[in-house]
Amino acid sequence: MKYSFKYLSNNSDIRLAYFVLTTAVIFEYSKVSRCCETPFSGFGVYIGTPSHMNSTNVTFIESVMDILYFDLKLRHYRINYPSYFSTSKNKYTISCDSQNCEWTWEAILKIMSNKSRYSKITMIASIWSPPHYMKDELKQNLKPIYELDYYYYIKNITKLIYDEYNIEIEKVSPVNEPENIFAAWDHCVMPPKQLCHMVQKFKDPLVSLCSENSYFWITELYMKYAKPSTEISCLDACQIVATHAYALNIVPDSPNFGLAGYDLVKYTRKWPNTKKVWMTEVSSTFLFPKTSQMEEGLTLATNIINFVGTTCVERYYFWLTFTMSPSGESLIWGITSANDPDYLSLFFPKKYFIFRHFTNAAYTTGPNSTVTSCNDSQIIVEFPESCLIFGSSSNKEFNVIVFLNKALTPTNLTSTVDCSCKFCCTTTEFDELCDWPNRNVLPAESVCTCVGGCVGNDGPVNAILNLNLLTYCLLFVTLLVCFY
User: Fold this and answer.
1) Which pLDDT band, with edges at 50, 70 and 90, does 30 fall under?
2) Calpha distance 65→409 (Å, rounded)
3) Residue 278: in which H helix or E strand, if any?
4) How confident is the model at residue 475 (pLDDT cuts 50, 70, 90)?
5) Neighbour-count burial for 123-142, b at 16+ CB within 10 Å, e otherwise
6) d(CA 318, CA 323)
7) What crossing angle do the helices spanning 2-10 and 460-483 adopt, rounded to 10°?
8) pTM, whole model, 2 decimals?
9) Contact 170, 122 (CB under 8 A)
10) What is the DSSP string of 107-151?
11) Radius of gyration of the chain (CA)
12) How far is Cα 117 from Cα 158, in angstroms, rounded to an integer?
């Protein structure tokens, strides 16, 4: 043994090869996760327009809001400013364009203004369309001569909401999906040249959430727009980059061809960490939502893991809160009774429970959670990047892991994972099962919450860090052996 050590020390070629090989092995096995450099502030949802709740009453709306706040533990909410909030220049009002929904707007805002019940929430607004007198109705765009009036409209509506309901709007996106020329709803088309020039001209942090495109790759294109001669730059104008996370189904023989679903591409963050990125909308418009609940839920989980763990967005908002019938666009469905048409109950599809795994994990670890995407070589065998570790910014010893298993069979977890405190799963059979017999195995087609770090037991992140420490020690020994 002594001779062999001496031989290696004197043979530079073998010594170098040994060093490179050992370092490569150590690097491969020390790959545990990739931590986002900016903290994650939490999940949110678009509350919905009054039309989604027209057939309900105030008590029903309040019960839905309670579910969002107390069960999903959401603290970030999104609303819109309808075009009818201003019907003529210098005239601003928070009202509705039909008798059916006037009370609903008032009810939603009044409910959310109850700060003793809903404390520490944020509210952002997106605008689908400016007031119609400001638009070219043929081209569906904002007339340039009305840009300043549009700014006053945004400021005045924001002030009215605060004055009448004591709700402070954190940020406003001036145009929702500005590239969507095919939208069937009231909308506004706005190319990056006009949008970013307008926002840059306003120089108001309130109106600096943009460009909120339907697809992330289009937001990347908008953010690349810059015109040095006029000093217009979308990346400079948009203090917070807003995007949606849809993907168009382009499979010709699919029943969902031409419909939008969840984007499953992993996008690396291309902007400086000083630039916040918020994912402000995602859902599915695919057909047959009632019979494909688990499939949609697992797809939603993939979208969350990719955008929160790889793209490292600081906020993630789902699209709709509630619809009166089963829909891929909403978290909660209304179900009427055949015997009593006036009776309306709530139905919670699988995606609700799957979304709850992530929202509760983020809430449990705090408003500025550290987020780490897991690597399959250490955490889970089947799927790379198939879990998120939410870490507490105030307690480094505490973390919550949300696992995703898409496989049709159970998947073993490695010994570095500790789920001794809590292990709850959503599966095809169970909405939530917390007494799973084997905490080292993920059930087939499941999303599970794992909490370690009980008294006298290191949590999963600590275990991984200890493993990393060993690899670094091995690397140090290797350096001594190779270059002594």
Assistant:
1) very low
2) 37
3) strand 276-281
4) very low
5) bbbbbbbbbeebbeeeebbb
6) 13
7) 80
8) 0.87
9) yes
10) HHHHHHT-TTTS-S-EEEEE-S---GGGEETTTTEE-GGGHHHHH
11) 26
12) 22
Average pLDDT over the chain, rounded to whole? 85
| Residue 181 and residue 189 in contact, taking contact as beta carbons nearer than 8 Å | yes
What is the rounded distance in angstroms from the CA atom of residue 245 to the CA atom of residue 319?
A: 10
Measuring CA to CA, which residue among 449, 412, 417, 414 is closest to residue 433? 449
How many residues in the chain?
484
Residue 174 · residue 206 · CB < 8 Å:
no
Whether 455 has a pLDDT exceeding 90, the answer reads no
Sequence-separated (6 or more) residues with CB below 8 Å from residue 116: none
Say which amino acid occupies 332. Answer: I
Q: Does residue 421 contact residue 456 with C-beta atoms inside 8 Å?
A: no
b/e string for 34-49 if b means 16 or more Cβ within 10 A? bebebbbbbbbbbbbb
Residue 291 CA, chain-centre distance (Å), reads 24
Q: How far is CA 55 from CA 52, 61, 136, 325, 336, in A?
A: 8, 10, 34, 12, 11
CB 50 within 8 A of CB 101: yes
Neighbouring CB atoms inside 10 A of 301's CB total 27
Mark 443-478 as b/e (b = at least 16 C-beta within 10 Å): bebbbbbbbbbeeeebbbbbbbeebbeebeebbeeb
Contacts of 248 (CB under 8 A, 6+ apart): 215, 258, 259, 260
Long-range contacts at 427-432 (CB < 8 A, ≥ 24 apart): 427/294, 428/294, 428/350, 431/348, 431/350, 431/353, 432/353
Residue type, 62: E
CA distance 276 to 242: 9
Instruction: Return the amino acid letter for 446.
Output: S
Residue 391 is encoded by which pair of tokens? 């870490």
Handedness of CA 198, 202, 205, 207 (dihedral sign): negative
pLDDT digits (tens, 9 = 90+) for 183-217: 999 999 999 999 999 999 999 999 999 999 999 99
Closest CA to 31 of 376, 445, 289: 376
The residues that bridge with 442 in the sheet, in sequence order, are: 411
DSSP 67: I
- Omega cis (within 30) before 119: no
CA distance 324 to 55: 8
